[in-house]
Amino acid sequence: MDLQINSFEDYKRVYEYSVAEPEKFWAGIADTFTWRKKWDKVLNWNFTEPNIRWFEGAKLNITENCLDRHLETLGNQPAIIWEPNDPEEDHRVLTYKQLHDKVCQFANVLKNNGAQKGDRICIYMPMVPELAIAVLACARIGAIHSVVFGGFSAQSIADRIQDASCSLVITSDGAFRGGKEIPMKSVIDDALVRCPSVKKVIVLTRSRTPVSMIKGRDAWWEDEVKKVETMGNPDCPAEEMDAEDMLFILYTSGSTGKPKGVVHTCGGYMVYTGYTFANVFQYQPGEVYFCTADIGWITGHSYIVYGPLSQGATSLMFEGIPTWPDAGRLWNIVQIHKANILYTAPTALRSLMGFGLDPVIGKDLSSLKKLGSVGEPINEEAWHWFDDHIGHNKCPIVDTWWQTETGGIMISPIAGVTPTKPGYATLPLPGIQPILVDENGKEIEGNDVSGNLCIRYPWPGMLRTTYGDHERCRTTYFATYENLYFTGDGCLRDADGYYKITGRVDDVLNVSGHRLGTAEVENAINMHANVIESAVVGYPHDIKGQGVYAFVVCPEKHGTDESTRKDIVMTVSRIIGPIAKPDKIQFVSGLPKTRSGKIMRRILRKIAEGDTSNLGDTSTLLDPAVVTEIKEGRI
Ligand code: PRX
């Protein structure tokens, strides 16, 4: 069976085959990768425990697929092009050969510092090439990386380090983001007060922000590299991994207060990210691919590092932000590096749209051939702006729907091959079997329908467990509906059978493409000394997609309403990180609750959205009068 997809007809044929013969289909894809030993069985699974095992018995190392196998043919091709935060600073290019050498060298540094296969290593770094090197070096020696996004607080880092009992941390002195210099090492120092499992901290020099180095625990990246250089052998043979050995943990928010460590394994994740990268973007040799995500999120893991590199692509990574020094920065980067593919987020597009067309006019975007969007629903206005002003109506836009848990893209157009439709993720990729169900788990068949989005058959990139708590994985994803993986998203399938993701149906918010649990934000707000309780909901926000609206019971304030709001925002920033700051805080005397004490979020959501005309039946509430007060006090 020819698995190449060059036309819509090919897609239909391959898709049908992937559903009829999933194991043969995935074996065909997996054959294009390098294995030390092939699998005994393609797939073993059940969604009840759940127990999902792909390519069982196979041996590999993902870095041999991302680096070694390209050395002969692509050794001098750029693997990573790095654009610094400050446009005045020189950009850097790492060829596959250079990246291979640096990964081996740093893998030896990790070993020298006691790291072994199976150890958990926390990485908290800015978007510099060394972040990709650190990730790959962990994978090289079989250590499990847990990358924590730079916008998280010391407390959040500590929670993640403790949950996984990390023994080593890789960080930098500081980071540059737009006009700001952000401390990194000192945040780690605050986190480590609570993390006895950490024995070593390796610190990269980036900003020359003053730091305190603790004797015996902390070492400079550069010094450690020198040490291994003087030891001679620059190579570091890759550790042989089982296909189902853990590759990494990535923490993500859910509907409970505590983020969970989503676990991905070596073989399936490699096959899935490599295949979907090559297929969705129709990557052609020599193309420059620019993904604006941060490696701290799943998009960066799958589509800056592993997917592109396993396919021998040139991955352009950017340290800064789209609006600094001005709102033309992304377009300058496209122009300078002649990027052919641009993969970005709706929130970035919406914020750039706000600056008008001046920053775009005069920029040479003629190198662009394909565009992609990820992270949240893309509204039609942003879709058309992207199409008209960036793609000049000649670049297909792939609106890619997926999740941290899915490992890679699930529902998406295939660039230039399958149709696009503004606001729609369109059709499932080969191997992906979506299903819509009603509240009771009954399948909703046919077209022009909507329901809760589930997946009914495993795919290689799916999560295997949540670290240290398999039961949580089962109850969160596999227990809501029998024998289905539940995504937490609502979805419609239009008359043509195209999928449009309508947003989360659980208590998860998507703020600027960042996932936040309402309970997580509430817990943080409740840490403030004067707060008695709070309820957090999302509301439509022009740029962020969703904003955070907090209803807070705080009868005794230390200062004015405004200063208390600031204190609460500061508390959330300290507990979770600046990304979780509430946009609006309304002080209320009580929350609408049922007689059994359950907060009626539906009512709060409607009020936050400004839709107060029909709040439904409020007579069953413990104190119906509170609704009138909240309605009137809406911000
Ligand atoms: O609600 C969906 C939304 O983002 C959620 C996953 O968030 P996260 O795990 O942080 O991963 C983001 C990057 C893959 C989903 O449950 N989402 C993601 N992509 C889209 C989307 N919503 C609509 N359209 C998309 N293309």
Strand residue percentage? 15-25%
| CATH level-two architecture of the domain at 96-229 | 3-Layer(aba) Sandwich
* Global Rg: 24 Å
Bound ligand species: adenosine-5'-monophosphate-propyl ester
CATH class annotation of the domain at 96-229: Alpha Beta
Number of strands: 30
N→C terminal distance: 60 Å
Oligomer: single chain
How many strands, which pairing sense, and closed or not: the largest β-sheet? 8 strands, mixed
Commentary on this structure:
The structure is a single chain. With 635 residues, the chain is α/β, with parallel strands linked by helices. Among the domains are: 134 residues, Rossmann fold (3-Layer(aba) Sandwich); 54 residues, no CATH class; 125 residues, ANL, C-terminal domain (GMP Synthetase, Chain A, domain 3). The chain contains 19 helices and 30 strands. The strands form eight sheets. Strands 12-11-8-6-7-14-15-23 form an eight-stranded mixed β-sheet, with helices on both faces. Helix 5 crosses helix 6 and helix 13 crosses helix 14. The longest helix has 17 residues. Adenosine-5'-monophosphate-propyl ester binds next to helix 11, strand 20, strand 24 and strand 25.
Briefly summarize what is shown.
This protein is of the alpha/beta class. Among the domains are: 96-229, Rossmann fold; 451-504, no CATH class; 508-632, GMP Synthetase, Chain A, domain 3, CATH 3.30.300.30.
What is this structure's SSE topology?
Elements: H1 8-20, H2 22-30, E1 41-46, E2 51-56, E3 59-60, H3 62-66, H4 71-74, E4 78-83, E5 92-95, H5 96-112, E6 120-124, H6 129-141, E7 144-147, H7 154-164, E8 168-172, E9 174-177, E10 180-183, H8 185-192, E11 200-204, E12 218-220, H9 221-230, E13 241-242, E14 246-252, E15 260-265, H10 266-280, E16 288-291, H11 298-310, E17 314-318, H12 329-337, E18 341-344, H13 346-353, E19 370-374, H14 380-390, E20 397-400, E21 434-437, E22 449-455, E23 465-466, H15 470-478, E24 485-493, E25 499-504, E26 508-511, E27 514-517, H16 518-526, E28 533-541, E29 545-553, H17 561-575, E30 584-588, H18 601-609, H19 625-632
Parallel strand pairs: 4-17, 6-7, 6-8, 7-14, 8-11, 11-12, 16-17, 16-18, 18-19, 19-20, 29-30
Antiparallel strand pairs: 1-2, 3-13, 4-5, 9-10, 14-15, 15-23, 21-22, 22-24, 24-25, 26-27, 28-29
Helix pairs in contact: 1-2, 5-6, 5-9, 7-8, 10-11, 13-14
